Amino acid sequence: MTFEEPRLSTVGIEPKDGKWFVTVHESGLVTKRPFGTETAAKEFAKQEEKRLGIRT
Questions:
Q1: Which residue ranges of the chain lie beneath pLDDT 70?
Q2: Fewer CB near the terminus (10 Å): N or C of the chain?
Q3: Is 21 helix (H, G, I), strand (E, B) or coil?
């Protein structure tokens, strides 16, 4: 039987209470950063994905 290993690093964006939060799961650690706009959150998420090697 074969199975896929889960990715060790992920980045997610979610709205909550009028703010946008970017959640980064990296090597077992989880960090969550608030942003005032969706655009700022998406830009930060994109940078984190590049840094973690998720997106090229």
A1: 1-7, 56
A2: N
A3: strand
